[in-house]
Every structure is written in structure tokens, then in C-alpha cells.
Amino acid sequence: MFGGPSEAHSLGVITKDFKYIFWNYGANGFEPTEEIFHISKDRLELKNEIENPEYKKSLNEMRKHYDQAVSKWKNEAVKFNDYERFATIFDRNTSWSEKSHLVKGAKSVESKKKKKKK
Fold first, then answer.
1. What is the distance, to the nearest Å, from the Cα of residue 46 to the centroid of all Cα atoms in its chain?
2. Taking the CB of the first residue and of the last residue of the chain, which one, N or C, has fewer CB atoms within 10 A?
3. Containing H/E element for 60?
């Protein structure tokens, strides 16, 4: 379903004017992050507007669309080929420590801290 390394997996939603992407990976120096692009003004997606207060309302709307898509995935994912776990992996409201065990090859920040203490 998803090709490439886990670090490169993302999920997004698109409307006529905006594209919202959630990058879920939170290990190996990465942090989960969001991007929003005003694609009707920025077709090449060169400026992430995530910090721009002018886009706060649009960001909240796109998050809502995204959360609805993830919810639909949770309710309708097929039970084979390991698709169900991606609904949790891409849930932006689930912390990395709660879902890192679902991501192949990932170690949570907490598990690295525990190893250092030993």
C-alpha cells in the first residue's frame, strides 16, 4: 500500500484550494508534522502556510476533513493486508508513543531513553 521507508509515509486531504498533509513519523530524529498549502495560489506547493495566522480557519477546516478521512478508514478498512493499522498510524490525535509499535522499523523516543539509562 505505502511504498518506501516509513519515514516517508504521509497522508493528506485536498480541496479545490488547499492541500493538508500529516507526516506521522516520530522517531530517528523526526517529529510528526503538518503542512498546508494554498494550492490555488501556490500550485508548486513551495510555501507551507502552517504558521501563517491568516490560514488558521482553513487549517482547522482541513484538519476536520483529514480527521473524517481517518475515521472513515478506521471504520471501513479491510481486515487483511495489514491496512487497519494505518488508521492508527495516521491519526494525528494519537501520540507517537502510542503508535510507534505499529510502524515497522521505528523505535519510540521513550524506548531510546530507556536504553540509554541502562
1. 19
2. C
3. helix 56-76
